[in-house]
Amino acid sequence: MIIVMEPKATAEQINIVKNSLEKKGFKIILNEGDVMTVIAAIGDKRLVDPASIASFDGVREVKLIQEPYKLASREGKEEDTVIEFPNGVKIGGLERPVMMVGPCSVEKDFEGLLRVAEAAKEMGCQFLRGGAFKPRTSPYDFQGLEGKALEYLAKAREMTGLLIVTEVMDTADVPLVEDYADIVQIGARNMQNFKLLKAVGKCPKPVLLKRGAAATIREFLLAAEHIMCNGNEKVILCERGVKGFDSTFTRNTLDIAAIPIIKKYSHLPVIADPSHGTGRRYLVEPMSKAALVAGANGLMIEVHHDPEHASSDGAQSLSIPLFKETQRRLNKLIGRIDYDNRQLKTQIK
Amino acid sequence: MIIVMEPKATAEQINIVKNSLEKKGFKIILNEGDVMTVIAAIGDKRLVDPASIASFDGVREVKLIQEPYKLASREGKEEDTVIEFPNGVKIGGLERPVMMVGPCSVEKDFEGLLRVAEAAKEMGCQFLRGGAFKPRTSPYDFQGLEGKALEYLAKAREMTGLLIVTEVMDTADVPLVEDYADIVQIGARNMQNFKLLKAVGKCPKPVLLKRGAAATIREFLLAAEHIMCNGNEKVILCERGVKGFDSTFTRNTLDIAAIPIIKKYSHLPVIADPSHGTGRRYLVEPMSKAALVAGANGLMIEVHHDPEHASSDGAQSLSIPLFKETQRRLNKLIGRIDYDNRQLKTQIK
Amino acid sequence: MIIVMEPKATAEQINIVKNSLEKKGFKIILNEGDVMTVIAAIGDKRLVDPASIASFDGVREVKLIQEPYKLASREGKEEDTVIEFPNGVKIGGLERPVMMVGPCSVEKDFEGLLRVAEAAKEMGCQFLRGGAFKPRTSPYDFQGLEGKALEYLAKAREMTGLLIVTEVMDTADVPLVEDYADIVQIGARNMQNFKLLKAVGKCPKPVLLKRGAAATIREFLLAAEHIMCNGNEKVILCERGVKGFDSTFTRNTLDIAAIPIIKKYSHLPVIADPSHGTGRRYLVEPMSKAALVAGANGLMIEVHHDPEHASSDGAQSLSIPLFKETQRRLNKLIGRIDYDNRQLKTQIK
Amino acid sequence: MIIVMEPKATAEQINIVKNSLEKKGFKIILNEGDVMTVIAAIGDKRLVDPASIASFDGVREVKLIQEPYKLASREGKEEDTVIEFPNGVKIGGLERPVMMVGPCSVEKDFEGLLRVAEAAKEMGCQFLRGGAFKPRTSPYDFQGLEGKALEYLAKAREMTGLLIVTEVMDTADVPLVEDYADIVQIGARNMQNFKLLKAVGKCPKPVLLKRGAAATIREFLLAAEHIMCNGNEKVILCERGVKGFDSTFTRNTLDIAAIPIIKKYSHLPVIADPSHGTGRRYLVEPMSKAALVAGANGLMIEVHHDPEHASSDGAQSLSIPLFKETQRRLNKLIGRIDYDNRQLKTQIK
Questions:
Q1: Which of C150, C228, C235, D282 has the fewest CB atoms within 10 Å, i.e. the most exposed one?
Q2: Is A218 on the interface with C (CB under 8 A)?
Q3: In terms of DSSP bridges, do strands D183-186 and D163-167 run parallel, antiparallel, or are they unpaired?
């Protein structure tokens, strides 16, 4: 931690900061410049809240040197986390990128869901996604089928062998959702719902954590840390677009660079959601490709058997024929990436 | 709702959109230009999800004309909502702006809390704020005293007569918090925790809803709508800063213009939180004044008896002496505003 | 300057950075932690481009401690800069806040301009603003009357005694504009047009520098530094709104906090432009008041004799009657601020 | 154009708007809803400034239907613009993506520049980039060698056959720069320097226009329109990152989605600059690949013979060996894209 003092800070103010940190076990180095004094405090950041140091008189600014997440950080664990499912599917590291596809929300028409699942299976996808509980900006929009939807997903899993990804929105629903899901999803709007993070941190299933629309990468990794420090280290991060100043052509700005950045600073798997990340059907394919070549361990894409009558997010959903056509091209690219990754694995060995 | 078709949309595509909307009870007017056709659909937006219209082939864009919130809108209720508490304190409309002050989180030291409460009382403030459950970006930071904190707040209320504002973070805690609080607060990070909004929508106490750091004003009012359509119309909105591109000098950008904008489009009371909105002690006073003259119905300010040892947010907390000095100047401004407002009330009558 | 090394940086990499900085005259202190080494380099930042240090192998991040602007900084010059005009009008410090009003662009109808100028004079304003050269987002919109407009402004000055503020867009026009203007304005879109900053830096007239829509406060002050280091220290800064993620209700987010922040870190006068900062007529008054109580040394407001037929920015312009009504209330507030400031001046003496 | 009236607008206010637009040749359709009236005005937007309509009393909002750019729009010209250089190199459409590489700024050491140029040539690149005039945020940083730099670039062109891209910052320098350059570059900070856009609009050389850090896609295309409507239709657009709320890990957010969006709405070639777009060396390769698979017609990358002693932007520059290694992998990807594009061209024929 670096503490920059105000140019006018008195010797006494500097001393108070110094002593307070020394008491907490930090090693202190004073750097006295012509204009201002800078204090370097070396030690475990987690022993002290930087904001409390910033509140001392005469302190201009506190700068963190070491990232405040520990379990999520590559500094603590160098090798990539690879999450393996009972059926052998793996996510992370140099494993073949996975595909999670399905409707935004599970609707009453089970046949429609099944048709999507069958198309996904046919195209080699590994996961079926679908919302049972739906966070909706407007209270007048469709809110999800809840328990019924979870049963439908389980039935589709039984019939196709796909694994199930579905969102949980409230601590009270965690036991129910973790019973049905293979991956429990935390939506972007709940990325800092800390009670919910704690609850899924105690759950045995892997968690897919979506980045909040205004979350910095540091806040995103700290949200993962909330889950991990409660015992669940199987966290998959999902970049799904951040708020930008131009909403004429897209809902969000899909931050592709977040993928290689997170891979540098964390060992956790990262996937991308180009459907929510753009909100436009025609952008799903180019942004899927961009995410894959930038290093994504998988993609989450919305597919609906009848987008024009979808209960939510129809505008960004692919119809089944369009999905198949797109997936064919994505599979070609995934094949190449997988081939390159396998070469890399051999070299590393 | 205005539907802009693609320049190349076929007559058949236009017809499908037209028929689908007519079936849902909309009156349709076709505007055929040289380049593209624009469809005006007049009727109740809530009968149809605009995203589902956007998903039809040939549709370029769907533009909403009428705001999608109804209960929160001034179109539905012209006169200002004024919330009155059992002790006669009122928030909203042309009532004297109120002050909510106190520490970010309630800590073990009850005496400290009491000293803040007594100073608040002395300076004419109406509310004591303090977190029992604390949302913290890092899992290693102080998370709040929970039940113990609620008891402390209740005790401070008893001793000073101040009303209590405190945050609830999870549906499971709503019964406990509503038992103790005079106002139940929803934090910025939970602004779109829809299960929680629903739960406080069923609670008898007024709700203070903080704006999410990346929430548009429309999303903010829709979050209020989630509470209101569950039966609780006593919602106080709180502007507390949005994410900006410059975090060198402040934590957030306090969006002062949001105050008069919300007052134009909604009848609900609006307050501002300059402490979280800036994250810097020296900005609390000028931004408090800015919010008040822009029309805020109140302010929420962090005050701590010992900011240098606060468990959270010390850097933006005022010490008791600094608070008193600041509040003295704010009271002068509040007095002038109250005088002007009373003149206005007389004129209106 | 603080240089954070990568956890894996080698002793040799650390040495190369250290030696390179020592050669440039910096005093070096090594802070070796368990995880990473942090180098404090104490000396004149301007001797070295931090980006070049960031390019050494093994460097994770370079953090600036001292702000890179010098002439604009309060560290170099503690007392407020007050700019005085030949007619005795002053801007800055504790002087009475000034008003700059007028149409967005000067149009063919001189009588209209004169009516605005006369109303401004009547209401006690000091400056007439009006664009001769107009930056327009679309090439098909009105681009300004150029030389003709400058003559009109000069004529209005002669008839009313108001001082003239007008924008220059190109180095080639600087001699012409500085001939007519009392204050030469640099528009937000040209805030980083460094050739133009250099040109007005050599001009004898005060410069009004508008903040770019995506400029950080640091970039804004560095743009002022470009002007000042070319010899012109009479720079007035103008906050006029930054790009935000919500453009439904406003064009920009007027960053009121920028006013007290700049006042803390710089001695230059700061004004605000609530017309461009919001783009909405009904927001001009509340945001004007907010800027004034937050410490602005003046306001720039658009007034048009016939907003419905303005060549540009009609939606945010006040008509003459609305301006008078608004200005009456603003004058009341300015009077109180001036009174308080004069008390302060007496106390300081 | 759609004009949404306030719910309380009077019949007379509606009539004034209607008549004013009819006089300007628009066809008017009134859509009267229960709550408010919506006016559709069909005709040529450029006959009227929407802001002037927005300034009428009773108008809530004016929404544009047709994009305000015409020459840059794909609606006006369906086939892709392909720019061909005298040596046969082509940019745009389904042509092989091109590479523009070189140092941020041209420095005194000609041998260094030549080594970069030779490496670029060896790796199959088509263009040498290098700044003669350098826009610098701080006035104390290196500002460019100007004329000398242009001579160096010309000499390097002569020796390697590479084409030259270099920036012009001021109208006064346009004749000089267009004499030397094969492509004249407009930097991001000058994207709305309209006098400069006009000047290069009259120049015979192709123009590379960089997106401003806070420019919407609409503003970006309108800036291109400024150049095109002055006679120069050879405009290459360059995405180089926009301002975001997280600057911990990158300088800017490279908006990859802008590439397919612009390709949908405009016929102009689009390239990406991952060096400025991220500011970090390790992100150049993944973001280059992302831009290419998303449809970019080329890339601009910073390469320096000695990044640790570069006069500017060393942290994001590749050294020559790192460049070669990266370019080898990019060439492999470019080869595949080119192969796919040629297949597509055959199918289209």
A1: D282
A2: no
A3: parallel
Torsion of the alpha carbons at B182, B186, B188 and B190, rounded to the nearest 10:
170
DSSP character string of A16-78? HHHHHHHHTT-EEEEEE-SS-EEEEEES-GGGS-HHHHHTSTTEEEEE--S-S-STTBTTT--
The kind and range of the H/E element at A155 are: helix A147-160
Distance, CA of B186 to CA of B223 (rounded, Å)? 10
- Helix pair angle (B281-293, C281-293), 10° resolution: 140
- More confident site: C81 or B40: C81
Nearest by Cα to D288 from A153, D25, B213, D296: D296
Instruction: For residue C310, give the nearest of D49, D68, D26, D41 by alpha carbon.
Output: D49
| Polymer length in residues for chain D | 349
Strand partners, B266: B73
Selection from B140, B115, B109 nearest residue B324 by Cα: B115
Q: What is the pLDDT of residue B62?
A: 83
CB neighbour class for B8 (10 Å; exposed up to 12, middle 13-18, buried from 19): exposed
The pLDDT of residue B142 is 78
* C74 close contact with B: CB closer than 8 A: no
The single residue listed with the structure tokens 């906050």 is C239
Minimal-distance CA residue of chain B relative to A69 = B138
Residues B280, C11: Cα–Cα separation, whole Å: 39
* Backbone angles phi and psi of A243, in degrees to 5: -70, 130
Euclidean distance between CA atoms A30 and A21, whole angstroms = 12
Residue burial B25-55, b: 16+ Cβ < 10 Å; e: rest = ebebbebebeebbbbbbbbbbeebbbbbbbb
Judge: A7–C75 Cβ closer than 8 Å, yes or no. yes
Contact D135 C243 (CB under 8 A): no
Cβ pairs bridging B and C (under 8 Å): 110
The pLDDT of residue C310 is above 80 = no
DSSP 3-state assignment of D272? strand
Q: Which chains touch D (3 or more CB pairs under 8 A)?
A: A, B, C
Residues A10-33 have pLDDT tens digits of 988 898 889 888 888 888 888 887
Does the beta carbon of A58 lie under 8 angstroms from any beta carbon of chain B? no
Are B281 and B94 in contact by the 8 Å Cβ rule? The answer is no
Tell whether C114 lies on the interface with D, counting CB pairs under 8 A.
no
pLDDT tens per residue, range B58-73: 888 887 777 778 899 9
Token pair listed for A124: 């080699």
- Across chain C, mean pLDDT equals 91
The answer to whether the CB of A187 falls within 8 A of the CB of A212 is no
How many Cα atoms occupy the beta-carbon half-sphere of B30 within 13 Å? 14
**How is B194-206 classified by DSSP, letter by letter?**
HHHHHHHHTSSS-
pTM: 0.92
Q: Which residue has the higher pLDDT, D246 or D304?
A: D304
Does the pLDDT at position A314 exceed 80? no
Complex confidence, ipTM: 0.92
CB A164 within 8 A of CB A132: no
B31 pLDDT higher than 90: no
Q: Are strands B59-63 and B2-5 parallel, antiparallel or unpaired?
A: antiparallel
Separation CA D44–CA D42 (nearest Å): 7
Contacts 24+ apart (CB under 8 A), C225-229: C225/C69, C225/C70, C225/C71, C225/C72, C225/D138, C225/D139, C226/C194, C226/C197, C226/C198, C226/C201, C226/D139, C227/C197, C227/C198, C227/C200, C227/C201, C228/C71, C228/C72, C228/C201, C229/C71, C229/C201, C229/D139, C229/D140
Q: What whole-number percentage of chain A has pLDDT above 70? A: 97
CA distances from B150 to B105, B112, B144, B155, C301 (A): 11, 15, 10, 9, 49
pLDDT value for D67: 72
